[in-house]
Amino acid sequence: MNILRYFQFKPYRFRFVPPRAPDTSECCGDGCPNCVWNDYFEKYEKYQMKYRLINSDQQITTLNTITYETNSFWVLKRLEKSEFFELLD
Questions:
Q1: Domains in the chain: how many in total?
Q2: Global pTM?
Q3: Mapped to the 3 state alphabet, what secondary structure does 4-59 carry?
Q4: Reduced to 3 states, what is the DSSP secondary structure of residue 56?
Q5: Rg of the chain taking only CA atoms, in angstroms
Q6: Residue-wise pLDDT tens for the chain (89 aa)?
Q7: Domain of 58?
Q8: 63 is a domain residue
Q9: Nearest-10 Cα torsion for 24, 30, 31, 33
Q10: Is residue 24 part of a domain?
């Protein structure tokens, strides 16, 4: 991430990207303990928890269903650790 971006005086826009669902060809259908679908559902559950937290944060403005905006550098630093976070220009 470009450090100069932090010092600009405009809101930070970001979005949360849900995990990609596995293709049907990625699963063998044998009920493996490490099935790609198990991994997907675990990631999707984490994504939904983050999504609920974002929608309840008072320092974050919802622009549409997946795009958000904040003026807080600290909110941004906390969120960028998430695997679903993507900073927009």
A1: 1
A2: 0.68
A3: HHHHCCCCEEEEECCCCCCCHHHCCCCCCCCCHHHHHHHHHHHHHHHHHHHHHCCC
A4: helix
A5: 16
A6: 555 555 555 777 888 788 899 998 998 888 888 899 999 999 999 888 888 877 777 777 777 666 788 887 777 777 777 778 888 86
A7: 10-17+33-88
A8: yes
A9: -100
A10: no
